[in-house]
């Protein structure tokens, strides 16, 4: 972010964003020079958002189409790992130890985020740990290359990624940063919490009050932004995340939720042979799911805070990994 700040210091908030690219216009033609799709996109940005078309075309002369990105997103889906294999990928001694260190280093900020947003410190730490191993793996692609490659050369999801490209350019203008410099994943997810540009603009916060939102290498802003995200997606302070269930009878599978959404209540599930280990209201909607654990099938009820975690990634195994890592962090920190 140092280069970003240096650039911002040289440029006015609005004119500077576009003025930066005068030099780019003299550069060699890039992979998208002369692309009708890019010309149409630039026209939309000019018409709808006030960008200067000629200068924005200068940006795209610097953009590179990355075949490795298309390979990564297009390869056949790998075999879905069962929980007993998925869990050890994220719940490791190394990740727990690094998480305890991260928590200790940023204890005051985490406590402030928990106070302000109602999201426990351990959940915030766990998200950053699962997403990027506390900043170790944030991605090495230029975000603009990733979003342009997928927005203009990956038809199955081109509309989604062009929307994210639009959000990214607006983000860069608002934050006064050079859009050619920021790095992220092959899909354009950014920083310690791996926010997509639309999530950045909607939920990221300037948690240290320095006038910029920097989720790339400012843990304070990353912590506050994760807490903000969960609060906005329905996290309820003080409530549990999941409840273990015992099942009996021949109608158990009828209770399994077809997706992430809670479609049955605790009472309805009880009639199908599900019994929660915790006292839950009969009228409480829950997500009922089964995981293949080391010792056989595990049955769980996901509550409202579980659903909030799935807003980050629509996977029950992802949400369980975040939840169980957060529990391990609390245990390990207490043992220090």
UniProtKB/TrEMBL annotation:
Keywords: Signal. One of its GO terms (molecular function) is peptidoglycan lytic transglycosylase activity. Pfam families: SLT_2. One of its GO terms (biological process) is peptidoglycan catabolic process. CDD domains: Slt35-like (cd13399). The keyword Transferase does not apply. Gene3D superfamilies: 1.10.530.10, Bacterial muramidase (1.10.8.350). Residues 36-327 form the Transglycosylase SLT domain. The active site is at 131. This is Lytic murein transglycosylase B. It comes from Pseudomonas donghuensis. The lineage of its organism: Bacteria, Pseudomonadati, Pseudomonadota, Gammaproteobacteria, Pseudomonadales.
